[in-house]
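Review box. Two proteins, two foldings.
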Amino acid sequence: VRIRDENDNSPKFSHLFRAEIEENSAIGTFVTQISSTDIDIYSVVTYELEDDGFGIFRIDPYSGNVTLISYIDRETQSEYALNVRAMDGVWQVRTSLTITILDQNDNAPIFSRDHFKFFVVNNAIVGSIVGKIEARDADSGENGVVFYSLRCAQDRFTVDPSSGLISLSIPLGNYTNEVFICEAEAIDGGMPALSAVATVEITAVGDKIVVPRFANRRPYFALLAGSPNGTVIGQLKTEPSTSCMRVLTDDDRFVIDENGTLSTRSNFPTSEIGRSITLRLAASFEQFYASSDEINATIEVTGANLHPPKFAQKKVTLSVPENSEMLTIVGIVSAFDDDPGINGRVTYAVDGNDFGQFPFEVNVTTGVVFVVGPVDYERKEIYKFFIAASDCGVPPQKATAQVLISVVDQDDNVPQFEDDSITL
């Protein structure tokens, strides 16, 4: 008795497939071979790439050989996820093929500008930071690592090969308005290495340099766990304003742009909730890099901001004598928030008054209301306004309380006759 085989079994893949190929490989380069098994005797298995292999790869339907049919660039796309079908005329199955594009050193570093210009005071000490040069390389791994060198007359300035920070190596003495021209080179770590050059102009000055100062000396920000890369954390301002702010702390998860916007360059999982991160920030005028103001900014990773602040009293009645001196304390408003950590941290502000020269202010952290302008009973007897309490969560929540301040009259006006003379 002969049993005739029927095609009643589908092909089977033994595993998921992965392959690697270098970018810039020639058309026709072999990538990998796809294979499967079919226990039916007479079945003929053929292969097919779904989505036509994105027009970049093809598969031989009988051998399963995958080859390159188009130019590939790792900087455009570093990995391709393909689906492969195996068919025996009746049955078909699918598997995945992941192709990783390996980097070649085909991109030279590019300086952020062709000409850098910095100023330094002539009495700066050796080691003072003068400025920073920066170049980027689109390649990955060692091919994308950039190193710096600097050539200057008399070697007055040197550059840190990794950070690009330029520092003073020889005292300037009495040089004033003297211009030093240097050539900077950025070279990558590839084999063979590629490089780029830029001009660095450094001027020695004798005048005192004005340094911008951060308006908020102790900024505290909340970062919601799970927020995506690029999330804005907060805004920093300086007086006078400057477009040159930077993160000094060696933590590449954060970046600050020319507008003072502090944002993330990484994701922060929920496992980091409650963690505080301290960043050292600096601000300077771009060409006066060495003269900078520095502060510490604290970032707390938080969970959801569930509760708004609540005032102990929704309506607060206070009084103040007229002619009170500046900074006289009038009273206090108080609010609390049930959230833990920074989500429960409450700040206060006068909410939307339209009185012009408003004579009262509230301390942002304590809720103390105090005098900041002239108070005159004869001009205004009662001030009615709102104070807002906001938490520091993401997004922040707010509550308001009404404040009534009665101005208490003082005997500060002498009697006046309606007429200078009276006839009886």
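Next protein.
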Amino acid sequence: MRITGCEILHCNAGWRDFSFLKLQTTDGITGIAEFNECYGSPGLSVVIKRLVDRIIEMDAMEHERIHQYLYAVTRQAPGGVNQKR
């Protein structure tokens, strides 16, 4: 069961938007997750889309492998520019 793609959906609820990530697999199974861009995190949809692009064709059942891979590609390097004051 490989991940084939994603769709990001936004729903206006009046006072804020609800955002959803919809993942599709080769077996026709769909997974849905909720996230929020309303409280100071604009651009989160773009970040999520770019991360999903990295896991296309990975086996959805190997969630620990996917987690470790995404952690490895997003962690900060010790002593990097963001950590210097």
